[in-house]
Write a structure and sequence with these properties.
alpha/beta, Vcp-like ATPase, Chain A, domain 2, 2 domains, 6 helices, seven-stranded mixed sheet, four-stranded antiparallel sheet
Length: 279
């Protein structure tokens, strides 16, 4: 990942790196060959017809930065929600997690890091092209670091085209789909007793429909959460008198950033209270 020096908030994700490839920006061209072999914190320039363009600092992207900057085919589950889901599922290393709705694999990778190399995330996606794109995203993150902990499946859980997902039972379920109540009767049997399922729903009307459906099933509504994340800006500033030639000392500017804080989704936490099948 490259961060523009004069605009530290401007970040560019470049890769996979190939000697004959380049990345074009409005500040010039970044040639892959000039990045290959460099170390984090090294500096380099984009190239223009006149010579050097903008200066950049090279970084290794965090998982949060990677899922936000990589190419997407749909809206990802943002890191703030992914972190909350992992906490709500009470995930431990070695757990087996079933995810319905792979999307861009943003949550998939967070889940894989939580279960570790001894665990497994089985993620099911009904759209073939989206599943393929998600797998490529995982492969390109730190040379496939999380890939051994993820198994990709294609199809609907209700018709079990996702492969053999029954034995052993799962330690947690995540459903990222508009109507999870249509799939819960089929995935309920895959969950261990007294363990959790989390549904990711953008609208409260969806939450209400889900809660109504759960009244007919052996599922306990544990919690409904909306996660907010607010960044603050802190920097040094100089206090000046009316006479601008005189400085009255340093001070700290402290206020929320101007980045909009928008709603993403409601997280609905359900607990399995019985081994009886949902009808």
């Amino acid at each position: 990942m490259l961060r523009q020096c004069k605009r530290s908030h401007k970040q560019i994700l470049v890769g996979p790196l190939q000697v004959d490839k380049s990345y074009e920006t409005h500040k010039g061209v970044l040639y892959h060959k000039n990045i290959i072999g460099r170390q984090p914190r090294d500096r380099l320039y984009s190239m223009t017809r006149e010579g050097n363009g903008a200066e950049y600092v090279l970084h290794t992207p965090t998982l949060e930065e990677y899922v936000l900057l990589c190419k997407r085919q749909c809206t990802p589950i943002y890191p703030k929600d992914a972190s909350a889901i992992i906490s709500m599922l009470d995930i431990n290393p070695g757990d087996r997690i079933l995810e319905a709705g792979t999307g861009n694999a943003a949550l998939t990778m967070h889940l894989a890091r939580a279960v570790g190399i001894s665990g497994k995330v089985h993620t099911v996606e009904n759209i073939v092209g989206r599943s393929k794109h998600a797998k490529e995203i995982v492969q390109h993150y730190r040379r496939g670091l999380l890939l051994p902990s993820i198994s990709f499946h294609i199809g609907l859980l209700s018709n079990r085209k996702g492969g053999n997902l029954i034995a052993p039972l799962f330690d947690g379920l995540v459903l990222d789909m508009p109507t999870p109540w249509t799939q819960l009767p089929f995935v309920f049997a895959y969950l261990k007793p007294d363990r959790y399922a989390v549904c990711y729903l953008p609208n409260m009307s969806q939450v209400l429909d889900l809660v109504r459906a759960c009244q007919r099933w052996p599922l306990i509504l544990e919690d409904v959460v909306e996660v907010t994340w607010r960044s603050w800006e802190l920097r040094m500033a100089v206090i000046r008198n009316q006479d601008t030639s005189q400085s009255n000392g340093d001070a700290m500017v402290c206020h929320p950033t101007h980045t909009p804080i928008g709603h993403t989704a409601f997280l609905v936490k359900l607990r399995k209270s019985s081994t009886a099948a949902i009808k």
